[in-house]
Design goal:
The complex is a heterodimer of chains A (332) and B (175). Helix content of chain A is 49%, strand content 20%. Chain A has 332 residues and is α/β, with parallel strands linked by helices. The radius of gyration of chain A is 22 Å and the shape is globular. Residues 166-175 of chain B have low confidence and may be disordered. In chain B, α1 packs antiparallel against α2 (55-78) and α4 (94-126) runs antiparallel to α6. With 175 residues, chain B is an all-alpha fold. Classes of the chains: A alpha/beta (332), B mainly alpha (175). Chains A and B meet through α1, α4, α8 and β6 of A and α2 and α4 of B.
């Protein structure tokens, strides 16, 4: 009998403990926010988050401290976004494709050749479309603190350089685990394969995949050129990254801290965008210097394939409206 | 006195019928998921040579594997196939062994209960999150945690209640 009680006791224990822990946390003086991302510490995401940390710490006069964890040490992007909802992580910078698994409306930004150039992208994200998407994210429990730049993306290959669109046919290309990205590469004639970012280098090395996509920045910083020395400048997508927080966690903060964080997010995003662009542009020369075979396939057939994809897509009405606004912003 | 003993034994009989039923369902599901996983991975590997992209095969195989592993953990517990260090335990006298086993059982139950508690939050997240290829809500995967670990806990308790005897030894080596 006593044994039975003991066993019932240990089973119930984890379900009771919870409340005492949270009050303990609430009592602590400085609020520590933990931020995670999957890039290296020498990449723009990190600099953007450090800028965020600097602004927040300065303006809150030390009441809030931000700890930044780079290189995916707190998990994959999806795991970190889950962490926001579970309360195990406070802030994440993740590629839009990871966030669109949680906020389907963000999926519109995963379409290939959506933006004409970076100016177009910034205009859209800082305008009404960005606001609408923020609203949809809030419905799902997330606050988008800033829209960051994750680079103009090109295609790397192991053995065969891409001189023309047709060279991509049948190659196994890694994309992010994002439906629209997979569909895009299938539409380009490749075999798209979704892998986690941390597995890309090894998969290129062992030949599990024939290629992958990246920006000049992470192609260099993650040393992908060592295992995939062919680099085709296609610019198939300009990637958006979202700096996100849990809406509930943000609402639970005192009003003044809330404002500081939202403002710092916007400023950090601007800072990061400048760095990403500079890094993308500066690194192309370096890529040539280290002996990478840089090719320039004609983007027209890629665009045509993307256009067909747009037509075949079963876009939700909400997404169609967003797509129209994005397209019309290109003409400005 | 007699009647309470009767009702106790009938309750025990009902309980053992119930666990028998659960075991049969779990064994069936483990076979099903394992079989599906084999086929899906094979299809995907073969598909690679014909330049057919079957990305749903990889994702559904992962899903099947998750369910298989979590359910089979309980089955493995029943057969006492989980790795455990027992050098010290076997050097102890019988009476002490029983108490050590009880402490181990309590620790394991506490852990499983904690994991089930955590999985409830994860399932709530899974209502918002969708899988990359099939776009299934992620609770489809996360639901395996409370069910698999709950079954694990059941087998854990049953193994403890079974006194170690020569009969049991031969039973576990049965094909």
């Amino acid at each position: 009998m006593a044994v039975t009680l003991l066993l019932v006791g240990v089973v119930l224990l984890p379900w009771l403990q919870l409340s005492s822990k949270t009050t303990e946390e609430a009592r602590s003086e400085t609020l520590v926010l933990r931020a995670g991302h999957s890039s290296n510490p020498d990449e723009p995401y990190h600099a953007g988050l450090l800028e965020f940390a600097r602004i927040v710490e300065e303006r809150s006069e030390g009441r809030v401290r931000v700890e930044v964890y780079p290189s995916g040490q707190l998990g994959s992007e999806r795991m970190m976004i889950e962490g926001l909802l579970l309360g195990t992580l406070d802030i994440v910078v993740a590629a839009n494709g990871s966030a669109s698994s949680f906020v389907p409306e963000l999926g519109v930004l995963d379409l290939p050749f959506l933006f004409e150039d970076r100016e177009h992208m910034y205009r859209v994200l800082d305008g009404p479309v960005g606001e609408t998407l923020r609203g949809h994210a809030r419905e799902r429990g997330f606050r988008i603190l800033g829209y960051l730049d994750a680079g103009v993306r090109h295609i790397m290959t192991r053995s065969r350089p891409l001189e023309r669109f047709e060279d991509l046919r049948g190659l196994k290309i890694r994309t992010m685990p994002v439906p629209r990205h997979l569909e895009a590469f299938d539409a380009f004639g490749a075999q798209a394969l979704a892998l986690n970012y941390g597995e890309v280098y090894g998969s290129l090395q062992t030949g599990l995949i024939d290629g992958a996509e990246a920006a000049n920045t992470n192609f260099t910083r993650k040393n992908f050129h060592e295992v995939a020395p062919n680099w085709a400048q296609v610019g198939w997508i300009i990637l958006v990254a979202n700096m996100m927080m849990s809406e509930a966690a943000l609402q639970a903060m005192p009003e003044d801290l809330h404002r500081i964080i939202v403002d710092a997010g916007a400023r950090a995003a601007q800072h990061e965008r400048v760095l990403y662009r500079e890094s993308d542009e500066a690194l192309l020369d370096r890529i040539r210097e280290i002996g990478v075979n840089v090719t320039y396939p004609d983007p027209a057939p890629f665009r045509r394939a993307a256009e067909r994809l747009y037509q075949s897509q079963d876009l939700a009405p909400r997404e169609r409206a967003l797509l129209r606004s994005i397209r019309s912003a290109a003409d400005l | 006195m007699n009647s309470t003993r009767f009702s106790l034994s009938s309750a025990a009989a009902m309980l053992s019928t119930l666990t028998g039923l659960i075991r049969r369902i779990v064994s069936f599901l483990v076979l099903l998921f394992f079989g599906y996983m084999l086929v899906a991975v094979l299809v995907q590997v073969v598909g690679r040579y014909f330049a057919v992209s079957i990305d749903w095969a990889a994702e559904s195989a992962t899903l099947a594997q998750i369910w298989m592993v979590l359910l089979a953990a309980g089955l493995a517990m029943r057969e006492q196939l989980h790795v455990r260090v027992e050098v010290l335990l076997h050097a102890m006298p019988r009476g002490v062994q029983r108490w050590v086993n009880l402490i181990v059982l309590m620790t394991c139950l506490w852990f499983l209960s904690l994991a089930v508690r955590g999985s409830i939050d994860l399932i709530a997240v899974g209502a918002v999150e969708t899988s990359p290829v099939l776009r299934l809500p992620m609770w489809v995967a996360y639901l395996s945690l409370p069910l698999g670990l709950g079954y694990f806990a059941l087998e854990l308790v049953l193994v403890f209640l079974q006194p170690p005897s020569p009969a049991r030894q031969s039973e576990s080596t049965r094909p």
